[in-house]
UniProtKB/TrEMBL annotation:
One of its GO terms (biological process) is post-transcriptional regulation of gene expression. The keyword Zinc-finger does not apply. SMART domains: Pumilio. The lineage of its organism: Eukaryota, Metazoa, Ecdysozoa, Nematoda, Chromadorea. It holds the Pfam family PUF. Pumilio repeats lie at residues 109-145, 146-181, 269-304. One of its GO terms (molecular function) is mRNA 3'-UTR binding. Keywords: Developmental protein, Differentiation, Repeat. GO terms for cellular component: cytoplasm; nucleus. PANTHER family: FEM-3 MRNA-BINDING FACTOR 1-RELATED, RNA BINDING PROTEIN PUMILIO-RELATED. Residues 13-386 form the PUM-HD domain. This is PUM-HD domain-containing protein.
Amino acid sequence: MAVSTGRLGSAINSMVLVTPSVQQNGNFLHSLENLIESGDVAELAKTKQGCFLLQQNVPLCDQRLRAKLYNAFLQKDVFYTLCGDPSGNFFMQKLMDRSSPVEHPVIVSLVQGYLTALSCNRYSTRVMQKLWLKLNDELRMVLLDELKGREIDIAVDPNGTHLIQRIIEGAPISIYGPIVETFVSTNVRLRTIAEGRSGRRIVQLVFQKLGNDILLPHSEDAKALLEKLMQGMMLNFEQFVNHQFANYVIQYIISAQVFTRYTTEAIKKLFGKLLILSQEKYASHVVERALEFGNTKVVGAIMDEIFNGYEHDSDGADALEILLFDQFGNYVVQKMFEIAIDVRVGKRDGSTYWFDVLAQRIHQRYHQLRKYSSGLRLIGRLASVSTFSYGLIGI
């Protein structure tokens, strides 16, 4: 029901003066009941001030008035409109927070058939997330049935993705497992979600959940699902490693300590291509992660490939020289040097030869390196840990 500006203003003004003592005397409850009966309460919820006041005054003890309030807002037109309203959605979230099992079947019936639209709206997605947290397992399964066939669309949507995250975060594998099975059911689906700005966060969250679940007793289902997901990631490794979003998932796999076997498998897929990948905007980050989290053997293999694994180019530059002055490769060299320093001071295992090679090259290229901020960082780092610093002063 439409309400005039004057009437709405009067309603707001009358509520602004409400105090706890007034509310206890029943004056506000009487005012709220009048608003419900007149139909003005829904319009009030669409205003910033009115929505705030309604949130502060949801009746908890008066069951009769509470029932009237929920009945007013659980009408189809009112429910859908306010869920998607910039102000009204906040009150609907409050109603979800304060809802009881009595209202839940009614709310779920309103959502059925509209879950995708409600989840992918900037405002109503917040209401759906609140609702999910309140439902029992039986009604959650009803919503999961609504998701079937739409999991990917919702997961990659910038708004809908938050509902999928909410579901996965707090659910056991019996709940989130079927969703992940959909993600890995075809290679196209996996690539769609892993290469999405929002979808890649979902994939990372799934890895995080599975990483915890495989450590639990009776974790066979989690281990099997992890294997499926990893196989899909490894199948697409070359595409993902230099993709602007999917590369973050590869980085996560490499850095997560619980995935030791898969970490090594992923890093080995970089071998033979390190020079090219280190010069790429996104893949260079993956190489840095490999250096940071790889075991001593694979880090040694990376160092050796960059030091000795490539022919000199037409200008006579070797791989280390090329990376030293590359806009992305220089970050890889900086990470190599940090690893070499850690080995030198005993913080991690490895060969002191790594430090010797890198320190000598930085010393040799001092004049060229000092022209670049990246070069100055290397020079400064060398000066802080090495007797080479005495040779650098005054050059």
